[in-house]
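lol ok so funny story. i was supposed to be doing the assay writeup but got distracted and ended up predicting the structure for this chain instead. priorities right. anyway since i did it might as well share w the group, maybe its usefull for someone
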Amino acid sequence: MTKEPPILYRKRFIPEETVCLRSDVVLHFDDNLIITSWNVLHPRNDFSRGYSCCFLDKGFRVSRLIKPDGELLCWYCDIMDFVFGDEGKKLVMTDLLADIVVYPDGRTRLLDLDELAEAHARGLIDSRALERCLVRVNSLLDTIYKNHFRELIKPLEEITG
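and the output, tada:
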């Protein structure tokens, strides 16, 4: 890995796309953690910007979604694979489809398992990726249910306030 932050790419299976996230601002970068600030790619009414903490060693990204009025909408957790390329100059973040949302009041929702099943059935992801995704979902839910989510988002809050 280089000392300079890599150029970030988000890869999705449904819909199938890879998008360069050149406008994301890297606030912190080390061997296990990347923290970014970003604005939405397409206008939305529910949130306009956010901050993300990519846990490279854990296989997920936790994002703080900010409403247009500056208030927290929710914490959105993407289960992901992180693969460096071009001698560490590029990082492809592959969305493994399952998501977990944590609301400010503590409610938690698990989303998109139907998309995960569809992607597997269509051969878009293999059984090993499906297994990695489910193990990471379990790990993250375990962290949330044991009331350790605040510890997980602490690095993001320390950098972004």
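The CA atoms of residues 48 and 70 lie 9 Å apart. The mean pLDDT is 95.
back to the writeup now i swear
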